[in-house]
Automatic annotation (TrEMBL):
Name of the protein this chain belongs to: Ig-like domain-containing protein
Organism: Muraenolepis orangiensis (Patagonian moray cod)
InterPro entries the UniProt entry points to: Ig-like_dom, Ig-like_dom_sf, Ig-like_fold, Ig_sub, SIGLEC
Gene Ontology biological-process entries: cell adhesion
Annotated membrane topology: Single-pass membrane protein
PROSITE patterns (alphabetical): IG_LIKE
Subcellular localization(s) per the UniProt record: Membrane
Family in the record: Belongs to the immunoglobulin superfamily. SIGLEC (sialic acid binding Ig-like lectin) family.
């Protein structure tokens, strides 16, 4: 379809230079296929034999009929909700016969020029074929082929047909994650949403909604399509929790667990004990079982995925030799467990 549109646009621009072939011809997108229920605006351009050129005057009238000898479609300035009609949008003296068709059905439509002089011409050789196809389609959503890394710019595209000039299709995004720009081109509307990938959006769904005007029903119809964002990010919220044997005493056991939120998931966990000024590496893996000392019971983990690393909070456990059956696990950030 775009090919014919280009031809049309080119001829519109070059009118009088290249496309003025010296024959009576009408040109448009040859195969107009709007969705059922939509009105349709057809860009249209014509050429004339030399002998008719000066007969093309502002008083000429554009006529559209269904079938070669069929009924003339009323030319209305406002669309009617009833029968077939057209609204002429072109400028005849500029060889432009662009027209919007309302309530028409499948068939061939013929253009005629009727001037108050010898220019009375039926363009019988080039009928406009309108063939309705399917219902209004869901918008087409385009997204990155691969997972995007946090901090990079993401571009999502959404396009939908916009076949009827006075009622352009509107495309919207929810949620509005960033800037969107809308472009109306040929008989299609495209919206581009641009935003910076953040770990906060991972797994969220972004929808694109097309608002179509369904002319046969005189109302808007909305159709959405959504896409689940997949964003890779470095580890976040890395934290250590511990569960000591009871009672917690020197030589007793302590199980440590390191958790982190990362995409892709953490591939390496490394455990450290803080020993005075020194930091000792004491193990690997998301869980670690160790023996308690009476000093230096300070631990943290460090995690790594393909994107980055993060260190956890420091986990401290006090064993002061005064035990009680009552112990308390604090939910504060440093996960202290004290025994009274
Ligand atoms: C159709 O409408 C256009 C725009 O309103 C007008 O210029 C043209 O003369 C009309 N044609 C007829 C046949 O009524
Ligand atoms: C129609 O086209 C003619 C010739 O190009 C131009 O002079 C005229 O201003 C146009 N009329 C309108 C309403 O655009
Ligand atoms: C037009 O033709 C298509 C495909 O042949 C068909 O699905 C559709 O119902 C027809 N529409 C009308 C308005 O006749
Ligand atoms: C996004 O959509 C998918 C598939 O429809 C669903 O499984 C998932 O729960 C949705 N995610 C959110 C955050 O709503
Ligand atoms: C259809 O939606 C457009 C854009 O949101 C709005 O301007 C128009 O009034 C709506 N038309 C109807 C019939 O609801
Ligand atoms: C980290 O925790 C905070 C507070 O609970 C939460 O808002 C945030 O979404 C978490 N981040 C990740 C990547 O899970
Ligand atoms: C520590 O982990 C080991 C092995 O997973 C388990 O047998 C033991 O019961 C755990 N101890 C505590 C106090 O959670
Ligand atoms: C942890 O794993 C690395 C590589 O797999 C290994 O070099 C290191 O010795 C391990 N550390 C401990 C304390 O087990």
């Amino acid at each position: 379809m775009t090919g014919s549109w280009r031809l049309f646009l080119l001829c519109g621009l070059l009118q009088g230079a290249g496309c003025q072939t010296g024959t009576n011809k009408v040109l448009f997108a040859t195969n107009v296929m709007p969705a059922i229920g939509s009105c349709v605006t057809v860009p249209c351009h014509f050429t004339l034999e030399k002998r008719f050129e000066e007969d093309l005057i502002p008083e000429c009238k554009p006529i559209w009929r269904k079938g070669n000898k069929g009924p003339v479609l009323p030319n209305l300035t406002k669309e009617s909700t009833g029968g077939m009609s057209v609204t002429f949008r072109g400028n005849l003296t500029a060889y432009d016969c662009t027209t919007t068709f309302y309530n028409v059905d499948n068939g061939s439509y013929y253009f005629r020029l009727e001037c108050p002089n010898k220019l009375q011409w039926n363009f019988v050789d080039e009928p406009l074929t309108i063939q309705f196809k399917g219902d209004l389609p869901a918008p087409l959503l385009t997204h990155p082929k691969e997972q995007v890394v946090e901090g990079t710019l993401v571009e999502l595209g959404c396009s939908a047909p916009s076949p009827c000039h006075p009622h352009p299709t509107i495309v919207t995004w929810t949620p509005t994650l960033g800037l969107s720009t809308q472009l109306q081109r040929d008989n299609e509307v495209t919206s581009t949403l641009t935003f910076t990938a953040s770990h906060r959006y991972h797994g969220n769904n972004v929808s694109c909604t097309a608002i179509y005007f369904k002319q046969s029903q005189g109302k808007n119809v909305t159709i959405s399509r959504s896409y689940q964002l997949s964003i890779s990010f470095s580890p976040r919220n890395t934290s250590v929790s511990g569960s000591p044997c009871h009672p917690a005493r020197e030589g007793g056991c302590l199980n440590l667990t390191c958790t982190s939120h990362a995409n892709p998931p953490v591939s390496e966990f490394t455990w450290y004990r803080i020993h005075g000024e020194r930091i000792l590496q004491i193990g690997n893996g998301s869980a670690l079982s160790i023996q308690l000392f009476n000093t230096n019971n300070w631990f943290f983990c460090e995690v790594l995925n393909g994107i980055g690393t993060e260190k956890s909070n420091v986990y401290k456990i006090d064993i002061q030799g005064i035990y009680s059956t009552c112990w308390q696990k604090s939910l504060s950030n440093d996960h202290q467990i004290r025994f009274f």
